[in-house]
Amino acid sequence: MKLLGLNRNVVVAGLVSFLMDVSSEMIYPLVPLFLANVLGVNKSVIGLIEGIAESTASLLKVFSGWYSDHTSGRKWLMVAGYGISALSRPFVALATAWPHVFAFRFVDRLGKGIRTAPRDALIDESTDRSSLGGAFGFHRSMDTFGAVVGPSLAILLLSLFANNYRLVFWLSIIPAAMAVVFIVFFITETAKRTPADSPKPKLSLSHFDWRFKLFMGIATLFAIGNSSDVFLILRAEQIGVPSVMIPAVYLVFNLVYSLSALPAGMAADRFGKKRLILLSFVFFAIVYFGFAAAATTLQVWVLFGFYGLFMGITEGVQKAYLATIIPETFKATAFGIYNMFIGLALLPASIVAGLLWDNVGPTAPFYFGGIMALLSASLFLVYTGKFK
Q1: Is pLDDT of 62 > 80?
Q2: Which domain does 230 fall in, by range?
Q3: What is the pTM of this model?
């Protein structure tokens, strides 16, 4: 099966991510509002919940990647990861206190930690070198289109069933279960078993050269300024966007993200992945400074659209570039290390953002993020000058 010249595995992986994101994004935009407005949790605790859930689960990404390379397996780790995330939904559907919400976020991210590295390696191994940007861009586009459909369904269901959040949470199980079924029946294993005398992957950076290590450092520094998106949602509400419209604002973000990811990946294949990465750092700084200065709801809507464009030109492109600088036999390990570093950075990023919000003001997290992005852009310029 070919779509846009892509291998069947890439197409199915995109469909699987679409279904899982439909499920996730029926819930995600409502969670910070539920914590802040219903349970009365302050912003520092919200940041702590997000940071711990993301960062702790991120540790699994490197172990999952290592194990995938060690056993030469991708498919069944994907089944396990997506399956665990599907099983997390009842936690939030039954939640009556913030620890229950934390349990949902933790188990959901646990599943993501297991599936991410093997899935990225499978996409890489199913794609020609000249089309990596397009393949990862397609995956990000499908993933994010699910994040357009998910909030749309949430808005529709909330309007039809008198703001029955728990019903939305229960119904989110259906697309998550469908995602697991598609992996089982339509994904083909790609990893080749290595000879017995070949070196086994280790949980170490020793497999990788300086290009990988320096890029990891720059990407991690940038991630420290890129706190959880819950702060964008809280900023939108603080400026004046009604709570009922928050899913719609988030939908705009995801729609732009979905529409821009594939063209951005194709542009990276044609004009250079490093140029797109540098552009994304600078553009992020502009967007975050915009969130700090915003004073009207119209500005918030526009900024969420620009933030979606930033996401479209960064996530898939970074992974496509990473695929060009890692050894063939350690692909899942490399993707696991990358995702672990980025995920672990979310803990200090979200804690710092929450503390800045509570103790300095709502604009402080965004000024901090913009400054970190400009610093990352400067270091990346040095990096690209050293490694042509």
Answers
A1: no
A2: 8-185+209-386
A3: 0.72
